[in-house]
C-alpha cells in the first residue's frame, strides 16, 4: 500500500481527531455508526482504517464480506475517490507480532502458540490483552510512509460502554504486569495517544432509558480518567411528530372519510390508542434528549432507517455524521 497523494485536510473541522473511538451500549448500532464514520471521513480521496477488537467479525457481517484477517485489507470505496480499509485485531496474533518485534521470537512465538501458551497468557492477564489490542491501533494511527500518515483517520469499533473505561486505561491495567521494559513503554505510549487531542471517544446511544443512562455514566467515567469525549451520537432518531397534540377520534374519523376508507369504531379507537402511545413515546424521547443536552457535549442525530442497514443506509448515516444533523 503505497503513499499516494491525498487531500491534506480531514473531512470537516467537526471531526478533527485522527483516532475516533466509537463505543455505546450493546444494541445501539455502534458498529454501523463506526463504519459510517469511516466512510464519511474517507470521502474526497482520503484513506481511513476501520478497526474492530472484539472478535465478533461485525464489520465483515455488516458489509457481507469474508471474515477479516489480522491484516489490513481494502474494504470499500468511499465517495469521490476515498478508500476504507479494515482490520480485525486479534490478541494472540498481536502478541506474536509483539514477541517478534521486540524479542525476535517469531518462530518461538509460533511454537508457544501451538502449546496454548499465547492463549493462556492473554486469558490470565486481561490487561496485557488490552495493551496488545490498543497498541496495534496506535501503530496504525501513527504509521507514516514517505513522510506522511498512511491513514487520514482511524475509526475503532470499541468495546461497549460498560467496558470502555477499563479497555482504554491501559497504563493502570499494565502497572501490575510490568514495571520496566517494552510492555511498560508500549502501554505508556498508547496511554499518551489516547489522552491526546489526536483521539476522541464518541458514544452511541438510542433515545431509550437504559442506553441514555449508560451513556451518561460512561461519559462521567471517561472524563474522570482523562479521555476526551468527542460527540454523543443519537442513533435511529425518528422525525418529530407533525403536532405535539394528540389527534382526536373525531379528527381520525374525518380523515378516514376523506380518504374514502370505512369508518369503524374499533379501527378509530385502535388508531387513537396508537397515536396516544406515539405522543407519550415522543415526550419520553424529548426528556431523554434534554438529559443528553445537559452533558454539554455536541450531539449528532442519525435517522432511523426503516429498510434496515445496507450500503445505501451507511452512506445516509455517513452524510448525516459529516453534516452534524
Automatic annotation (TrEMBL):
<dbReference type="InterPro" id="IPR027417">
    <property type="entry name" value="P-loop_NTPase"/>
</dbReference>
<dbReference type="InterPro" id="IPR025723">
    <property type="entry name" value="ArsA/GET3_ATPase-like"/>
</dbReference>
<dbReference type="GO" id="GO:0016887">
    <property type="term" value="F:ATP hydrolysis activity"/>
</dbReference>
<protein>
    <submittedName>
        <fullName>ATPase</fullName>
    </submittedName>
</protein>
<dbReference type="Pfam" id="PF02374">
    <property type="entry name" value="ArsA_ATPase"/>
</dbReference>
<dbReference type="GO" id="GO:0005524">
    <property type="term" value="F:ATP binding"/>
</dbReference>
<dbReference type="InterPro" id="IPR016300">
    <property type="entry name" value="ATPase_ArsA/GET3"/>
</dbReference>
<feature type="domain" description="ArsA/GET3 Anion-transporting ATPase-like">
    <location>
        <begin position="20"/>
        <end position="176"/>
    </location>
</feature>
Amino acid at each position: 500500500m503505497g503513499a499516494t497523494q491525498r487531500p491534506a485536510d480531514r473531512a470537516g473541522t467537526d471531526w478533527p481527531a485522527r483516532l475516533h473511538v466509537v463505543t455505546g451500549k450493546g444494541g445501539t448500532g455502534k458498529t454501523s455508526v463506526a463504519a459510517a464514520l469511516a466512510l464519511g471521513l474517507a470521502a474526497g480521496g482520503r484513506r481511513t482504517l476501520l478497526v474492530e477488537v472484539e472478535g465478533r467479525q461485525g464489520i465483515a457481517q455488516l458489509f457481507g464480506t469474508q471474515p477479516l484477517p489480522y491484516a489490513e485489507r481494502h474494504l470499500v470505496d468511499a465517495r469521490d475517490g476515498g478508500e476504507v480499509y479494515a482490520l480485525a485485531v486479534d490478541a494472540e496474533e498481536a502478541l506474536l507480532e509483539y514477541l517478534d518485534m521486540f524479542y525476535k521470537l517469531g518462530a518461538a512465538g509460533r511454537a508457544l502458540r501451538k502449546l496454548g501458551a499465547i492463549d493462556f497468557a492473554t486469558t490470565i492477564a486481561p490487561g496485557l490483552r488490552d495493551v496488545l489490542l490498543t497498541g496495534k491501533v496506535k501503530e496504525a494511527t501513527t504509521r507514516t510512509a514517505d513522510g506522511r500518515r498512511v491513514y487520514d483517520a482511524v475509526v475503532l469499533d470499541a468495546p461497549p460502554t460498560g467496558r470502555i473505561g477499563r479497555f482504554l486505561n491501559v497504563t493502570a491495567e499494565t502497572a501490575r504486569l510490568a514495571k520496566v521494559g517494552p510492555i511498560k513503554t508500549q502501554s505508556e505510549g498508547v496511554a499518551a495517544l489516547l489522552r491526546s487531542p489526536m483521539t476522541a471517544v464518541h458514544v452511541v446511544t438510542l433515545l431509550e432509558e437504559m442506553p441514555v443512562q449508560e451513556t451518561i455514566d460512561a461519559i462521567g467515567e471517561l472524563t474522570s480518567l482523562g479521555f476526551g469525549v468527542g460527540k454523543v451520537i443519537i442513533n435511529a432518531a425518528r422525525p418529530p411528530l407533525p403536532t405535539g397534540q394528540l389527534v382526536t377520534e373525531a379528527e381520525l374519523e374525518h380523515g378516514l372519510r376523506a380518504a374514502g376508507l370505512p369508518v369503524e369504531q374499533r379501527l378509530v379507537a385502535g388508531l387513537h390508542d396508537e397515536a396516544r402511545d406515539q405522543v407519550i413515546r415522543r415526550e419520553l424521547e424529548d426528556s431523554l434528549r434534554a438529559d443528553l443536552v445537559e452533558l454539554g457535549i455536541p450531539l449528532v442525530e442519525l435517522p432511523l432507517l426503516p429498510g434496515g442497514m445496507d450500503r445505501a443506509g451507511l452512506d445516509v448515516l455517513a452524510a448525516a455524521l459529516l453534516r452534524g444533523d
